[in-house]
Design brief:
By secondary structure, the protein is an alpha+beta fold. It has two domains: 2-70, no CATH class; 74-407, Neuraminidase (6 Propeller), CATH 2.120.10. The protein is built from seven helices and 25 strands. It is globular and about 70 Å long. The relative contact order is 0.12. This is F-box associated beta-propeller type 1 domain-containing protein.
Length: 412
């Protein structure tokens, strides 16, 4: 009887295991057949795993690379900053990484030490070297891809002005540049656009061009909503109704020029230190750090390009109480404190992750993370302690830092 009982138990166990396998197999088949359910599951997988998952099957590869799937992905998240200091300021390395969330985040950036950072866009950086060779740097793989020189790039009139990359639409990037030709009118220039595509690996001329008059300058372009944007200056009050009254954008796919309103700030200096213009999680911002101001206003552009509005205000008085070095001394009166001097290195939006948005501010010698919601702040980098500054330079406020967001590339 014992033998029969054991046999019966083993049989029941085998049937249970077989039934479990059958149910599991059946559940897997249901998931695999239901693309909507599979999409919801894959959307919860970290972006860095998507490339591996594409090798599972042709079905998964088609699903992950489909535009619909990419449009459902949350915005790309900046997890750190690459900060580059001028070579003349530091006698050591001139590129440093500042993590914004996990202090253990430490990407490779050996190849970044060889070049000068010009602009960042969704995980890629536009760079150049001393020989005027331009590169696109992938911060997720530490790889530099050199751009071929254009025939018109003689070093006098050719300028690289923007990197356009949106991994939610395509894994290929474009670089926008223009040639400047002086016209007969004094101080007027004609600018012709050229576009480089990583897909074709060639430059092509665009049908678009425009004429800029006196007072129009172009700092770093910012890519937003498929367009490259530039803020124009207006130094000459004698031309209030000219094209200078608006800023320009270049629709990358359509190769079409358009205008958008100038922000309600002065936008007159070419210095990176006086102006922050950038994009974060599909929001376009501009901040002007006026000398000796007690507060900063963060402006955001409406998605329909109708107007700029004040999104945040940054009160500098509490920061100056905790960090007195933010106030510069009068060189002729050491006992007289001036108002705070500050620079905006980056602005990070975080609403999609149920976290507070924040700004990274540079005061002389330090970087501070400022919470834009509860207005708390904390020191995240002491450049005076971390960097091997040239002892002949004792004024850190002269440092023209370049800060670019580190974003894990979707194509990793």
């Amino acid at each position: 009887m014992m033998h029969i009982s054991c046999t019966f138990k083993k049989t029941n166990l085998g049937m249970a295991m077989s039934l479990k396998r059958s149910c599991t197999s059946s559940s897997q088949e249901v998931v695999l057949r239901d693309e909507d359910l599979l999409t919801l599951i894959l959307l919860r997988v970290p972006r860095t795993r998507h490339n591996l998952l594409k090798s599972v099957s042709k079905q998964w590869q088609c699903l992950i690379t489909a535009p619909h799937f990419r449009n459902l992905l949350p915005p790309l998240r900046a997890s750190g900053l690459f900060i580059q200091v001028p070579v003349e300021v530091s006698s050591g390395d001139n590129v440093y990484f500042v993590p914004l969330d996990d202090p253990r985040t430490a990407p490779l950036f050996r190849n970044l030490e060889k070049v000068c950072i010009l602009q960042s866009c969704n995980g890629l950086l536009l760079c150049s070297d001393a020989l005027r060779t331009h590169y696109v740097y992938d911060s997720s793989t530490d790889q530099l891809a050199s751009l071929p020189r254009h025939g018109l790039d003689t070093g006098n009139g050719f300028r690289y002005v923007g990197l356009a990359y949106d991994p939610s639409k395509s894994l290929h990037y474009k670089v926008i540049a223009f040639v400047t030709r002086r016209r007969a009118q004094l101080f007027h220039h004609e600018r012709d656009f050229y576009v480089y595509s990583s897909e074709t690996k060639t430059w092509k001329s665009s049908v678009q061009s425009f004429i800029s008059g006196p007072g129009m300058y172009f700092n770093d372009g910012v890519y937003w909503k498929g367009r490259m944007h530039w803020l124009s200056s207006l130094n000459y009050v004698s031309e209030p109704e000219s094209a200078l009254s608006e800023c320009l954008y270049f629709n990358v796919d359509e190769e079409r020029l358009g205008t958008f309103p100038r922000p309600p700030i002065r936008v007159w200096s070419n210095s990176r230190r006086s102006l922050y213009f950038g994009e974060s999680e599909d929001h376009l911002h501009v901040v002007e750090a006026r000398p000796y101001a007690n507060s900063l206003s963060v402006y955001e552009m409406k998605s329909d390009y109708s107007e700029w509005f004040v999104k945040y205000r940054i009160d500098l008085d509490p920061i100056s109480r905790d960090f007195p070095e933010i106030k510069e001394k009068d060189m002729f009166d050491e006992e007289n404190d001036h108002e705070p001097v500050v620079n905006v290195l980056s602005l990070i939006r975080r609403e999609n992750f149920h976290e507070d948005s924040f700004a990274v501010l540079e005061i002389p010698g330090k970087a501070i993370r400022y919470n834009l919601v509860d207005r708390s702040f904390q020191l995240i980098r002491d450049f005076g302690a971390d960097l091997d500054f040239d002892p002949k330079i004792n004024d850190y406020s002269l440092c023209d830092f370049t800060a670019c967001q580190y974003i894990v590339n979707l194509n990793v």
